[in-house]
Amino acid sequence: MTTSYPSTSVEAREEVGRSICVLSYKSLKIDEIIKSVSDDGAGATALFIGTTRNSYQGKVVTRLEYQAYSKLAIKTMTDIIRTAHQSATRSTHYSTPAAVPCIISCAVHHRLGTVPVGEPSIVIAVSSPHRKEAFVACEQILEEVKQRVQIWKREYYEGEKEDEAEWKANSS
Amino acid sequence: MSQPEITVLYFAAASTATGLTEQSVTLPALQYPLSSLSSFLASLHPDVGLDKILQSSQWSVNAEMVDNVEEVTLMGGEEVAIICPVSGG
Fold first, then answer.
1. Which partner from A4, A63, A119, B63 sits 20 to 30 angstroms from B34, CA to CA?
2. What is the ipTM of this complex?
3. Which residues have C-beta within 8 Å of that of residue B80, sequence separation ≥ 6?
């Protein structure tokens, strides 16, 4: 099963301070992603793993395929991370000294190409001194990625023609 | 003077409909309004449903999302992408 991907759908990575955004055709390594945000000042690390599910509205899903306009997608991802850092700074209720950031580090990894059932397509890790900021930022980043990042998913179903597989759209 | 040419990128449903991921397109006029590009591209790919796909899509020009289509004029040399509704995650 060879699928050709657009030449503009390539691997990419971009660092924003201590945070990182990655688009990769390879399996996402959850342990390494967690490690990449670790910090002795972090009392909390929130982790989200989005995985290919085996069913959609009664149909059996065999695999997902992702493609991205990588050049633009990675820009959008870094913008989302910057915004997450800023809004965490604004919303904090703790009397943290200014020198201590509310979010220490974020990592957003999105997979491209074929993702079999049961494998992660997106992993987001956020480290923070306290749990609340980590949870909030992790969810905010996920929702923004789904809304805005120039990545597309095609769902393949058992017993249906490959060329009729559906391109999904995230509802806003 | 040579006719202005742009590169059009097709992803997802737009790519499936046209059978292309990338296309060099010669614009029909100098200083071509982006707002006219939908119907022009649909005329290059008739009967594949591209017109309908374009209706629900946005544009990016040189890897920047376009907020207001009416404000953009293509001069030639741009990389224009059809941004279908996204579905990452």
1. A4
2. 0.96
3. B6, B7, B8, B9, B34, B37, B59, B60, B61, B74
Alpha-carbon distance of B70 to B89, in angstroms, equals: 31
Partner-chain residue, chosen from B11, B60, B85, that has the shortest CB–CB distance to A67: B11
- pTM for this entry: 0.93
CB-based contact A154 B85, cutoff 8 Å = no
Q: What is the pLDDT of residues B2-58, one digit of tens each?
A: 789 999 999 999 999 999 999 999 999 999 999 999 999 999 999 999 999 999 999
**Residues of A near B (CB-CB distance < 8 A)?**
4-9, 50, 66-69, 71-73, 75, 110, 121-122, 142, 145-154, 163, 167-170
Q: Which CATH class is domain A12-28+35-167?
A: alpha beta
Kindly determine whether residue B11 and residue A9, on different chains, have CB atoms separated by under 8 Å: yes
B85 touches chain A (CB under 8 A): yes
pLDDT (0 to 100) of residue A98? 52
Task: Find, in chain A, the residue whose alpha carbon is nearest to that of B16.
Answer: A163
Instruction: Name the architecture of domain B5-83.
Output: Roll (3.10)
* Inter-residue contact A48 to A110 (CB < 8 Å): no
Strand intervals (E) in chain A: 12-16, 19-24, 44-51, 55-56, 59-68, 105-111, 113-116, 120-128, 151-157, 166-167
The helices-and-strands tally (H runs, E runs) of chain B is 3, 7
Show the low-confidence residues of chain A (pLDDT under 70).
1-3, 90-100, 172
Q: Taking CB atoms and an 8 Å limit, are B11 and A150 in contact across chains?
A: yes
